[in-house]
Write a structure and sequence with these properties.
Length: about 230
Amino acid sequence: MLDELRDQVLAANLALPKHGLVTLTWGNVSGIDRASGLVVIKPSGVSYDEMTEDDLVVVDLDGNIVDGERRPSTDTPTHLTLYRAFAQIGGIAHSHSTWATAWAQAHKEIPVLGTTHADLTAHPIPLTRPLTEAEIEDDYEGATGMALVEAVSERGADQLPCALVRGHGPFSWGDSPEAALENAVTLEEVAHMALLSSLLDPGIPPLADAVRAKHFERKHGPRAYYGQRS
């Protein structure tokens, strides 16, 4: 199972630059094997062009390195906090993608303006609260994870598959590394379209509730009919 997870995590990480979500070595994807409680994550500062499975790092949910010669991503504590908080999460993707990060740096949540957003989530993409100086000093990455947990806890990780870290950038998640990547790609397009729409009409109203709910439910609800039956 862990070998399969390594394959998935490597593929998702290598897809980040292909989708234009990262520059240089920014960003990371991880995946968790819930049976063993082990997490596979990108190594810190390793080029995507050179990355192989041997570079990936395996850690437990306390952050102890179980396998790998590299140092894990500096965002590892943030990933682990999300995994501990939401049992349904199987993969997490983080980037500094331009359009989503612009909203994070502007300290604004992304409103639901269109059906592309509603296909991802029926709710605005939330923005985390400011961290205190003590949080930044004592456990910056872990506190970032807790701020993300707080931002999505009311709705849950299924209803909100992504969030913006204030002044930092987006985190996305799903039931697998591939799903987390897909949500990251969708979030970047949603952020792009929302910003352009807001420029065209600063007073643009949110998408009608009925349309918003319909688009989310047809893709994610109990009677979803988007896509093909397995």
